[in-house]
Amino acid sequence: MMMLLLFSIGIIATFLGTLAGGGGILSFPAMLLLGVPPHFAIASNKFSNTFSSFSSFFVLLKKKEVTFLTLVVPGAFSLAGGIAGSQAAAAIPPDVMKVAALVLLTFALLLTFMKKPDEKSGELERLPRSVYPYLFGIGAYDGMFGPGQGTLQMNLYLSKGFSVMKSIGFTRFNTFLSCIGAAVSYIASGFFLPEVALPLTAGSIIGAQLAVRTAGNLSKKQVLLMVRALTVILIVQLGIQLTGI
């Protein structure tokens, strides 16, 4: 029964997470409710995200929604940020990271209102260099804490004028890179339960595949609305955790 629940959690969380980011904020507390210890829950999330994010990115790559060469340099910033963040995680108190998450998510939410979504803006092909520092910062945040990093990226790309499919493609590729280092680190530290990680991963891959096939039927405004709604939910949840309400 538990494996079936984990499989279902993987499908639902990754489906929503692929479209709007923030899937980890759904799967992590769900695993805690099932009795999975926190470190093992985080490790399972990173492990499943590595596979699901690459599988969804690969579909978009085959459809030529994104090109690999346009992702190499920005991907390097995400990877470097993820490594730096995982190294710094032990020195930063969890409450400090939650405050940082609140600030980043609030900024990301405001960012989506700075430029109205324009379907024609999907013609953009490459990420501007001004985005690279943000990618490093989001990667570092993912390495240190994680929840909402996909939402931050989706907010960033949509606000810059990229199409829904390109925004998802960029986000999933960078998520794949930032999760690799974290997953390897957790596994090397012994925080790995195959009976938890494997069914979650199987469900996550299916959820990711369903999402990339659904995304083409959604307008930029619809996805942006989902991103904003999930961002507000993340802000409220983190606020409650910090205030102890």
Describe the protein in words.
With 245 residues, the chain is mainly alpha-helical. It is 77% helix and 0% strand. The model is unreliable at 116-122 (pLDDT under 50). It has one domain (2-243). The protein has helices at residues 2-20, 24-33, 38-62, 69-88, 94-112, 132-144, 149-159, 164-188, 194-215, 220-243. Keywords: Cell membrane, Membrane, Transmembrane, Transmembrane helix, Transport. Its main location: membrane. Belongs to the 4-toluene sulfonate uptake permease (TSUP) (TC 2.A.102) family.
Keywords:
245 residues, single chain, 0% strand, mainly alpha
Largest sheet: none
How many discrete domains?
A: 1
Strand proportion: under 5%
Number of strands: 0
Indicate the overall shape: globular
Oligomer: single chain
Task: Please give the share of residues in helix.
Answer: over 70%
Unreliable runs? 116-122
Instruction: Look at the helices and sheets and give the structural class.
Output: mainly alpha
What is the gyration radius calculated from CA atoms?
16 Å
Query: DSSP helix count?
Result: 10
Topology pattern, helix = H, strand = E: HHHHHHHHHH
Could you give the distance between the termini?
A: 33 Å
Global mean pLDDT: 80
